[in-house]
Fold Glycerol-3-phosphate dehydrogenase [NAD(P)+].
Amino acid sequence: MKFVVLGAGAWGTAFALHLARADQDVTLVPRRKEHAALLQAERENREYLPGIALPGTLAVTGEADAVVGGAEVVLLACPAQALRDTCSALRTRLGGARVRLVASLAKGLELRTHLRPSEVIASVLPGCATGSVTGPTNAAEVARGLPAALVLATAAVDEFANEVQAAMSGPTLRVYTSDDVAGAEFGGCLKNVYAIAAGCCEGLRLGDNAKAALMTRALAEMVRVGVALGARAETFYGLSGFGDLVATCHGGWSRNREFGQRVGEGRAVAELMAHRKTVVEGYKTTAALDELCRERGLEAPILREMHAILFEGKQPAEALRALMLRELKRETASPLPT
Ligand SMILES: NC(=O)c1ccc[n+]([C@@H]2O[C@H](COP(=O)([O-])OP(=O)(O)OC[C@H]3O[C@@H](n4cnc5c(N)ncnc54)[C@H](O)[C@@H]3O)[C@@H](O)[C@H]2O)c1
Ligand SMILES: O=P(O)(O)OC[C@H](O)CO
């Protein structure tokens, strides 16, 4: 199958590399032409995925115009806040050509519109089949060929979605399909917020009990918020929800978790964000989700406290106290999977 991956950060590069290893026809298109030239010359993405050789079968080009029209599947591997511009450029490049699926690899909610990745794609490329690829997949581990599983979420799991699933799957990556796109995408967005919270727990040296409690209540919050926003409860207990929550809250590699750890240690949020070279999706997604929950009157106390820490200057220790001293209640308050 013919894939084009737009964006050569850590994940776009790792996923393209995986597809090449799976014998798919794949072209990786970095955003900057000079980055494409570097990747072609060095056969390594030293900026975002150092130490991993790109196989000869992985084509790299800086000329998106030349390749997108011939793709069956276009994968968008940019940060969530850059998806709209990336789709606009893609629309111009596609002209009359029709790719069969445009799917996002991003895990964030758009600021202001509060649209999920596939909704952003649909708003810029109406009539296009859209989807999301999400789940617990640290880029470096996938690039090293370590086993992982993820979800390809599309509104209709039709024959073509099954073909894409098969093309993406192999001995090191098992791909499941889902037609609950909202659930898969909200799982990917929300888990990044809670990974920052888990990092805060570590920065505050609260111990393993605290992190376990946080993750458990975070899952309940994910289900409650997600279901209220149109997702199915069961999806949050799968790879895109629980799976990615566990991976990101525990992964030593997680940029969201690590950022939260620094915040918990008392570092200033603005200073941390100013010096970042790679994306921390949970930061802006906290703002987008908090606004959305407030607009809809949804109760999301962990998300609320994370917003207070990241955008309102609240001290992490104060936020912890606020969560611990909330009104006591029964554990069964959240919806259970059907
Ligand atoms: N790295 C991972 O392990 C991983 C795994 C699964 C999903 N994701 C998700 O994939 C998305 C991309 O993450 P990443 O890890 O590849 O990021 P990264 O920080 O490694 O790289 C960022 C990428 O985004 C591009 N970019 C930055 N600003 C841009 C802009 N304004 N317009 C277009 N492109 C821009 C950069 O050129 C680069 O290709 C994120 O939503 C992330 O949550 C990452
Ligand atoms: O490094 P993070 O925190 O952006 O997490 C990467 C992936 O989303 C893990 O599945």
